[in-house]
């Protein structure tokens, strides 16, 4: 966009120069390129060095020290042990700050919401004033779909209204036995491993990942991870997506700037893209099957005994209209599955690694 702005200004200036002076076409080209180069360098110098460090209204916000030249904190984020470790370190360093500022490539300013008060303002009080940035959709859009998370304005209100019923307290309470059962199984598995371990140190990330996917699959889809092929396939796909390697983190960073997932035919990109496509196909087939079951029960004037979130969403949608937006429901499910698994893993794994 900066290039287009400078080109437009340079064209106008060159045309104005031509009005007052009778010059050759060759000279006009020289004038244009000279104006373009000089003004572009001045603009980028201002945007990269002057504005963020001297003129930005965000410059008073606390944040980490400026590090790599033009890279900001990107290198630290790529080489970190886990995606959240750098942000957690900043939050511990500035515990009383509502907002934390750090630099992305090109000295672009990024604001991290730090306090519960600021988080409430952004996500609830003034939710519709803060649109999701485009780069963030490139970052996680393939993984969580285009459901409630990326919806804005009236579309968001409509989708939120659809999901309000299934997530009422009385419906969530029906799912408590699922959480309790899986929590007990996880505790028993950890206890067994600790007893069998000679050092007392055990590998827990796989157990946590399995338990979380088991809970999510039962509560959202009404599936058993060990006893249902669909859940097993989902577990394999999400393991591929959330595998954290140096190459996967590099591709994740590059994809925020340029959509390289489908352009670069490297193994990491192929596996990531194929896993997301397979998840979408699995969920769509499951939604179609569950919808058919519910319609059949309704024709016989019976109610489904299932209390999982998917069943409640389908019932809520069918009450309002016979038109059933399968892709929209699939996007909601992808959001619940991916966001739930990633968020809880990012919370439980650091806790498990903390000796205190």
From TrEMBL:
InterPro entries listed in its UniProt record: Cyt_P450, Cyt_P450_sf, Cytochrome_P450_monoxygenase
Tagged with keyword Thylakoid: no
Keyword line: Membrane, Transmembrane, Transmembrane helix
TM spans (from-to): 31-51
MF terms (GO), sorted A to Z: heme binding; iron ion binding; monooxygenase activity; oxidoreductase activity, acting on paired donors, with incorporation or reduction of molecular oxygen
Keyword Zinc: no
Family designation: Belongs to the cytochrome P450 family.
Protein name (database record): Molybdopterin synthase large subunit CnxH
């Amino acid at each position: 966009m900066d290039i287009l702005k400078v080109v437009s200004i340079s064209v106008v200036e060159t045309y104005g120069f031509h009005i007052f002076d009778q010059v050759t076409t060759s000279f006009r080209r020289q004038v244009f390129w000279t104006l373009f180069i000089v003004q572009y360098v001045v603009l980028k110098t201002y945007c990269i060095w002057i504005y963020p460090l001297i003129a930005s209204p965000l410059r008073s916000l606390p944040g980490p020290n400026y590090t790599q030249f033009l890279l900001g904190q990107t290198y630290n984020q790529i080489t970190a042990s886990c995606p959240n470790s750098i942000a957690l370190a900043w939050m511990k360093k500035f515990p009383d700050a509502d907002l934390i500022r750090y630099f992305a490539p090109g000295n672009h300013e990024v604001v991290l919401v730090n306090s519960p008060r600021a988080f409430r303002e952004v996500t609830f009080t003034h939710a519709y004033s803060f649109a999701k940035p485009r780069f963030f959709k490139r970052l996680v859009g393939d993984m969580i779909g285009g459901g409630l998370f990326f919806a804005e304005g009236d579309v968001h209100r409509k989708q939120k209204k659809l999901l309000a019923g299934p997530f009422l307290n009385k419906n969530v309470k029906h799912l408590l036995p699922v959480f309790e059962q899986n929590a007990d199984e996880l505790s028993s598995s950890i206890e067994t491993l600790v007893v069998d371990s000679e050092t007392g140190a055990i590998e827990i990330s796989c157990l946590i990942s399995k338990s979380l996917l088991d809970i999510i699959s039962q509560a959202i889809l009404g599936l058993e991870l060990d006893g249902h092929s669909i859940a097993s396939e989902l577990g394999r796909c999400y393991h591929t997506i959330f595998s954290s390697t140096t190459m996967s983190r590099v591709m994740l960073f590059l994809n925020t700037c340029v959509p390289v997932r489908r352009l670069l035919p490297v193994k990491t990109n192929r596996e990531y893209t194929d896993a997301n496509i397979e998840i979408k196909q699995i969920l769509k087939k499951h939604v179609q099957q569950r919808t058919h079951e519910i319609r059949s029960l309704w024709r016989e004037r019976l109610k489904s005994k299932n209390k999982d979130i998917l069943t409640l969403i389908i019932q809520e949608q069918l009450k309002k209209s016979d038109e059933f937006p399968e892709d929209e429901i699939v996007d909601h499910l992808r959001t619940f599955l991916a966001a739930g698994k990633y968020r809880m893993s990012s919370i439980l794994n650091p806790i498990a690694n903390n000796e205190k």
